[in-house]
Design a protein that fits this description.
Blueprint (H helix, E strand, L loop, with lengths): L4 E7 L4 E4 L5 E14 L5 E13 H10 L5 E14 L5 E14 L46
Parallel strand pairs: 4-6
Antiparallel strand pairs: 1-3, 1-5, 2-3, 3-4, 5-6
Length: about 150
């Protein structure tokens, strides 16, 4: 079974970062993705979908430092639905993307790479279990470096 989400989109606002009592950082991102299509009359229409993305620990701290409203970002993660009870006692559900990696796709100043905004191999963050949600077992093998979907 596979639960994998890949998004390329823009941040709708600056990352909201908070620290838990344990000291762990958690960041909430709102990411907009756009889809364009021609309607029946031949006019181009754009559909915007908003996604809530959660980053944990080191990934949250990186998001706080590297991302801002409007940033173009490539991210990978998984879908997670959580249940909560509102103040009136009604059950509510939220579906979020739990990120396990992201890359800023903004053009970098003062670099000679010209790689379209992707970091070089030297910029790749190290993968460790510090980016996982505290309730999730991380028994998966690390992804291959060439695991990009394009």
């Amino acid at each position: 079974m596979i639960n994998k989400v890949t998004l390329i989109g823009n941040l709708g606002k600056d990352p909201e970062v908070r620290r838990l009592e344990s000291g762990a950082a958690v960041a909430r991102l709102t990411v907009a993705t756009n889809e364009s299509y021609k309607d029946k009359s031949g006019d181009w229409q754009t559909l915007t979908e908003w996604h809530t993305v959660i980053c944990w620990r080191n990934l949250a701290e990186r998001a706080e430092k590297q991302l801002k409203k409007g940033s173009l970002v490539y991210l990978e993660g998984k879908l997670s639905t959580r249940k909560w009870t509102d103040k009136d006692g009604n059950d509510r559900y939220s579906t979020e993307v739990i990120a396990n990696t992201f890359r800023s796709m903004e053009r970098r100043e003062n670099t000679n790479t010209g790689g379209g905004g992707f970091p070089s191999a030297n910029d790749e963050p190290t993968r460790n279990n510090n980016n996982a949600s505290p309730n999730v077992s991380n028994n998966e093998p690390p992804a291959a470096d060439d695991d990009l979907p394009f």
